Amino acid sequence: MSKNITVYTTNACAYCLMVKKYLESKGQEYKIVNLDEQPEQRETLRKISGVQTVPVTVIQNESAEPSITVGWNPSKLSAALAA
Prior knowledge:
By secondary structure, this protein is an alpha+beta fold. It has a domain at 17-60. It has three helices and four strands, in the order βαβαββα. It has helices at 14-25, 42-49, 74-82, and strands at residues 3-9, 31-34, 56-61, 67-70. Strand 1, helix 1 and strand 2 form a beta-alpha-beta unit. The longest helix is centred in the first third of the chain and has 12 residues, at 14-25.
């Protein structure tokens, strides 16, 4: 099943780097939305997740509701990738 993965990040976020390295270690491709470079996306992030902090990882499966992981949470990321 195909997954669309988006990571909301900023330039100075160490946990964002950990999320990206984790996804890469699992062979997952992902899209980056850098809020430092795209500040207009902050409102989208708030609507999606209810927060304005990063990292936020959105994993969308073809036939399911998106899984939204706020922060560095490898167990939740793993479960979302396996779904």
